[in-house]
Amino acid sequence: MSHSPQSPAPHDSQPQAEGAPDAAPPSVARSPRARRRRTLSLVSKREAARVSRLLRAEVVGGVIVMIAALLGFIAANSPLAEGYFALRETKIGPETLGLHISVGHWASDGLLAIFFFMVGLELKREFVSGALSKFSTAIVPVAAAFGGVALPALAYIAFTAGTPAAHGWAIPTATDIAFAVAVLGLIAPRIPPALRMFLLTLAVVDDLIAISIIAIFYTENIQFLPLALALIPLALYAFIAHRFSARLARSTWGPWLILLPLGIVAWALFYSSGIHATIAGVVLAFLVPVNGRQGTQLAETFEHRFRPLSTGIAVPIFAFFAAGVAVGGASRFPFDPIAIGIMVGLVIGKPIGIALVTWILTRFTRAELDSAVSWRELIGVGALAGVGFTVSLLVTDLSFSDPGDADTARLAVMVGSVIAVGVSALFLVRKARAHPTRASQEF
Fold it and tell me: According to the UniProt record, where is the region Disordered (predicted)?
């Protein structure tokens, strides 16, 4: 995704004679087209290696989440349905602290905070030293992500305008990176690495937008006292993370015994304040140093310690309960405006928004697609961004209190995501077969 200028033509192999005039400056030697900036190129070998490791983890996480969601859907439509729904609605937790909530609520507000912590950590990495640290490498995925949010939201509103259901406009705007990367590895393993990195960065920015939407549009009746009190554990957390980063990076139990309890207290206070508790995970991640030798070590320690919790426990449990929709129950799928708006947003709005904004940038600025990337593949990746599972289901829970509306939206998210995979395959599978010898980085 780098916007580095194209290289000029190679110099003559003969040495320059002594006293000969200097070679023409690049601005003279290059053609007008060569002065354009490539987009969707890899930033650096180090960055590419880090992205490769992250993508491998996302593939594994995506497969696990798929299985968990499938099991939840089967349980909700089997003889086990009564026990499944009873378990999801069982309330646990201390009443005195206002945390006596259902198991399903714990999964969405509690366990997903771990997922959002990992998202926040990746966001900070990108802003400090990754593709989002420079304007030239950030402009395309950032702009494309906004396009991929705006058009699905407008598509949904077009079908629900003037009704209470319009409150769910943010449901089709999210991209599930774990699902998307896992599917990409299955349907297009030979896709150019630059496009994989583009999808990852696009999804990271998409998550940032989703986090902002949740914090701004889905927060009501803020209690400022708990929010003010949350500053105490957050300040302690930040001080310890920066002051003792080297020791914590080498310690086996330090992050668990010192920082985790502070994070839990901050999460509980965020929950009590009325701000969605998952935002606490993002805030905590942004307080972790990610630059410098010691900061990088601590960030990597956190990633190794907490990613298995996120990909192997937190998100799968959430998916298991969120995907439990009884077909033929309270749902009005597929002809309800909620369902139509979500599916149109995910399947059509996402790829058009992403591809259109990218085309505008390449048409009216100095950016151009890397030679290894075709528009067909870019549209395919844009369609894959329509796999909006985890965050879309979370926004569904925040949007609707009516069980019928919520179940309709959940089914629409799941079906729309599956259709988005099919659309993506139409653009990517054929292209991958057309270039069977093209080398690509493994996940």
Answer: 1-38
